[in-house]
TrEMBL record:
<feature type="transmembrane region" description="Helical">
    <location>
        <begin position="42"/>
        <end position="66"/>
    </location>
</feature>
<dbReference type="Pfam" id="PF05631">
    <property type="entry name" value="MFS_5"/>
</dbReference>
<feature type="transmembrane region" description="Helical">
    <location>
        <begin position="287"/>
        <end position="307"/>
    </location>
</feature>
<feature type="transmembrane region" description="Helical">
    <location>
        <begin position="78"/>
        <end position="97"/>
    </location>
</feature>
<dbReference type="GO" id="GO:0016020">
    <property type="term" value="C:membrane"/>
</dbReference>
<feature type="transmembrane region" description="Helical">
    <location>
        <begin position="402"/>
        <end position="423"/>
    </location>
</feature>
<feature type="region of interest" description="Disordered">
    <location>
        <begin position="432"/>
        <end position="456"/>
    </location>
</feature>
<feature type="transmembrane region" description="Helical">
    <location>
        <begin position="5"/>
        <end position="22"/>
    </location>
</feature>
<protein>
    <recommendedName>
        <fullName>Major facilitator superfamily domain-containing protein 5</fullName>
    </recommendedName>
</protein>
<feature type="transmembrane region" description="Helical">
    <location>
        <begin position="126"/>
        <end position="147"/>
    </location>
</feature>
<feature type="transmembrane region" description="Helical">
    <location>
        <begin position="319"/>
        <end position="336"/>
    </location>
</feature>
<dbReference type="InterPro" id="IPR036259">
    <property type="entry name" value="MFS_trans_sf"/>
</dbReference>
<feature type="transmembrane region" description="Helical">
    <location>
        <begin position="168"/>
        <end position="190"/>
    </location>
</feature>
<feature type="transmembrane region" description="Helical">
    <location>
        <begin position="376"/>
        <end position="396"/>
    </location>
</feature>
<dbReference type="InterPro" id="IPR008509">
    <property type="entry name" value="MOT2/MFSD5"/>
</dbReference>
<keyword id="KW-0472">Membrane</keyword>
<dbReference type="GO" id="GO:0015098">
    <property type="term" value="F:molybdate ion transmembrane transporter activity"/>
</dbReference>
Amino acid sequence: MSFFIISFLVLVAVCVGLYFYSRKSGTKIEGSSDPGFVYFRNLYLVVYLLGMAGDWLQGPYVYALYEHYKLSKRDIEFLFVAGFGASMLFGTVVGSFSDKFGRQRNCILYGIIYSLSCLTKHSSNFWVLLLGRLLGGTATSILWSGFETWLIHEHHSRGYSDRLLEEIFSWATIGNSIVAIVCGVAAQYAVDLFGFVAPFDMALIILVIMTVIVWLKWPENYGDASADLKKNFSDALTTVRTDRRVLCLGVVQSLFEGSMYCFVLEWTPALTPSAASTMSSGHAGKIPHGYIFAAYMVSLMIGGQLFSFCCNRSKPESFMRWVFGLSSVCLVQPALMRSDSLIPITFVGFLVFECCVGLFWPAIGTMRSKYVPDSIRATIMNLFRIPLNLVVVIILTQNFPIVFIFKCCVFFLIICCGIQFYLERLTRDEAPVESADGQTAEKSTEDDRKEFQGIA
């Protein structure tokens, strides 16, 4: 049995142990058993996880489908760059529609656009596939902003506490990991039985179901429906420029997620031995990708469970300082050198990094709910996806050595750690301010505005 499989089994045991420990000793959050909240939480989680399932089903087989259609490596790389480019350009605009036209409508738009993207996979024509990548890139921008903005507004409008919101984010991270594993297995069976297009047809069905549930069950909510899109972008840029809390969160989001995407692109070559080894356990010169991916997802689940423990003792603004510091240490080894003998150490670092990612997702959502204004929340979130997608496009288009890429990741994560220390100091003695419409937001002081206007 290889080191990778043993690691996966150990992680499963740890995850199960944490789950039962949390049920036995965890402090119950006030209001968490309220029937109204339970219905609201479950309704959101069902829709969100269906939306994520539609994405997870497609991911493992996009490249394989393009190869099946006999596309050249250059064409495949161009299609991937086009997807991230569409997310950076079109997705920023479309994802921001929710502030003016409604968050529920934006999530419905996600289901429609991504479903159309799935349909294009039935064609082997390059231009049809390119259209699919553009649609898919645009849809993912909505996925990473539209659902969260609807949740935060609806959560606060119903009068639920911030601790209950933290619980929803934690369950969303854990559930997303389970969905990823299930979708990976289901996609493999679908390909074996029906061919490479089958996972995309499964995703299409799930996305249609999700869209119908959103249409029937989710109430509509808005940011500033009276403002035009130009004003929304102007207000978002002004907020980023004048509110140090929002700026810090945005930079942290861009750099950490940029490092995460670089990791996703590079973990396979980092763990693949240059020759056959005992670690591969029969996979001559290769690695068991399925077990490794499953191990990453279990690590993500562990991070989601640890988030609840951390929140019982501290605020995300505080404990995320150490999470970012630890995540930078996790990637130091592949940033220094690559050696077959060091692959076990590299893999352990990657597992801990995934655990940090599991802590990051609910933490960043919780902090955004406090400090990003509700009226332009989606616009601001999508603005900070521009540098994130730019980082990925540069990585995809340049033939950087793997060691250099991981050095960039470590550098980005160290910056995240420093910024988080600054953010914790900024917010140490501050409490969220309730706005007139009941939304929780953190207001900048006049001194902050003057200081940033002077810098600008």
